[in-house]
Amino acid sequence: MQQEVITKDVFQFLENLKKNNSREWFTEHKSEFKALESGVKSFYTSLMNKLKVHDDIEKLKMFRIYRDVRFSKDKTPYKTHFAGSFSRAGLRLRGGYYLRIKPGETFIATGFWEPNKEDLFRIRKEFETDASEFRSIINKKGFQNIWGQLQGDELKTGPSGFNKEHPNIDLIKKKQFIFVRNFSDKEVLAPDFMTQIDLSFRAIRPYFDLMSEILTTNLNGESLLD
């Protein structure tokens, strides 16, 4: 039977792990972790099945609890959260979904984290030509009530080859195009948490549809996939 809710036990374990982030403690509590992890994975799988009702999801990737500490100053061996991402299927469908579960810091995110050089240039050229449709989508009240403002890293000025005084320079200088929605612990533990995530991801579709169209066509609107 798949788990449809996140339980208080999940939060309690993560809180305890934060206080006792050592291999010795984790080894002693590994059976507890495995049981909770199984339930959380079921939650993510159930969420993926909900997403598949209205989107074409290729795969779910659950991130491991173990931290790679080789190049980090923080040598604690374990993450203190659960996280997973959902990839859309096919070259025509761009963008992705992400969910992190952590006491006091749970959030969902969606959009384009690390567009490759070609995609980033194509997006910037689109905004250089016209960003009115893009702004119309992300500025809608219903959209902003759920997702707020566009987020992501950006250049201090415009990228090379673009007019630094362009009216859309606020978009052109961005390197990421993401939206984030935070959830309180009370909201995470509520019975409708999964439903709220699903409704949020449904609301992002006009944004995904436009960005997918941009990234699969040239500036003349001709398909790059045919």
UniProtKB/TrEMBL annotation:
TM ranges: none
Q: Which residues form the signal peptide?
A: none
The taxonomy runs: Bacteria, Pseudomonadati, Bacteroidota, Flavobacteriia, Flavobacteriales
Report the protein name in the record: DUF2461 domain-containing protein
What Pfam families does the annotation carry?
A: DUF2461 (PF09365)
Q: Which organism is it from?
A: Arenibacter arenosicollis
